[in-house]
């Protein structure tokens, strides 16, 4: 049963849509979809309704007026500017191979995902990913540089843990920790909880173990060498570039 009782009336519709997407509409997956619908209604749709916005206004990226805001208070602009100019982190559905089921709609192509680049910054061409990849791509390596990712993180194909995309396996060392957290997603090791929110299984043991390891290697050998001259530019490790950083149509 869904955690949001109001979504139960949508169960047959959810089952139909899951089937149309090529998945098996088993009870667990249907419940997960209903929970997601309930969560989005609570966290997003309700606020849109309070603003008397239409569905298109609520969910669309077409908001030229919003994107043209450029005061210092609009801190949201910092990350989009980086991926529009250098990183190229545009998560499209259109670039997923045809023999795979996409996590998001294939209608989300580069043209659509670049609306923010066009309208917020006047950028219409591809980002200069060489600016980032020149430091090593999947092979980037440097003392006191840790790579810690979740096994199910949607960003994983753009990290050195992208083994299915050409990234090499490497050992984890105190100087260069390399940790892949089982069953985890984005930021799980970073986003902590208050002591009164913990119990025997929360945070998940794999996350708690990773956080302890992080504290250990920072307290251990990292502090003494933190002021070594040269920094990131002192030694470059050249290597392959994460091809998924700029996905084609």
TrEMBL record:
<keyword id="KW-0325">Glycoprotein</keyword>
<feature type="region of interest" description="Disordered">
    <location>
        <begin position="224"/>
        <end position="249"/>
    </location>
</feature>
<dbReference type="InterPro" id="IPR008758">
    <property type="entry name" value="Peptidase_S28"/>
</dbReference>
<protein>
    <submittedName>
        <fullName>Uncharacterized protein</fullName>
    </submittedName>
</protein>
<keyword id="KW-0378">Hydrolase</keyword>
<dbReference type="GO" id="GO:0008239">
    <property type="term" value="F:dipeptidyl-peptidase activity"/>
</dbReference>
<dbReference type="GO" id="GO:0070008">
    <property type="term" value="F:serine-type exopeptidase activity"/>
</dbReference>
<feature type="compositionally biased region" description="Low complexity">
    <location>
        <begin position="234"/>
        <end position="249"/>
    </location>
</feature>
<keyword id="KW-0732">Signal</keyword>
<dbReference type="Pfam" id="PF05577">
    <property type="entry name" value="Peptidase_S28"/>
</dbReference>
<comment type="similarity">
    <text>Belongs to the peptidase S28 family.</text>
</comment>
<keyword id="KW-0645">Protease</keyword>
<dbReference type="InterPro" id="IPR029058">
    <property type="entry name" value="AB_hydrolase_fold"/>
</dbReference>
<dbReference type="GO" id="GO:0006508">
    <property type="term" value="P:proteolysis"/>
</dbReference>
């Amino acid at each position: 049963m869904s955690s949001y009782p109001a979504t139960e009336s949508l169960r047959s519709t959810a089952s139909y849509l899951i089937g149309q997407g090529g998945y098996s509409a088993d009870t667990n997956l249907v419940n997960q979809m209903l929970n997601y619908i309930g969560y989005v209604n609570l966290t997003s749709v309700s606020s849109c309704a309070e603003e008397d916005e239409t569905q298109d206004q609520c969910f669309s990226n077409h908001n030229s007026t919003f994107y043209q805001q450029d005061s210092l208070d609009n801190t949201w602009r910092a990350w989009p500017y980086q991926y529009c100019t250098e990183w190229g982190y545009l998560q499209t559905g259109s670039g997923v191979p045809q023999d795979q089921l996409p996590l998001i709609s294939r209608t989300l192509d580069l043209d659509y995902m670049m609306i923010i680049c066009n309208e917020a910054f006047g950028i219409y061409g591809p980002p200069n990913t060489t600016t980032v990849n020149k430091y090593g791509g999947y092979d980037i390596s440097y003392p006191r540089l840790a790579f810690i990712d979740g096994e199910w993180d949607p960003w994983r194909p753009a990290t050195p843990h992208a083994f299915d995309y050409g990234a090499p396996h490497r050992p984890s060392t105190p100087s260069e920790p390399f940790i892949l957290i089982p069953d985890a997603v984005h930021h799980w090791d970073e986003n902590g909880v208050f002591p009164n929110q913990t119990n025997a299984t929360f945070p998940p043991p794999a996350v708690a173990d990773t956080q302890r390891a992080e504290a250990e290697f920072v307290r251990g050998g990292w502090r003494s060498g933190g002021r070594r001259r040269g920094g990131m530019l002192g030694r470059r490790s050249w290597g392959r570039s994460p091809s998924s950083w700029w996905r084609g149509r």
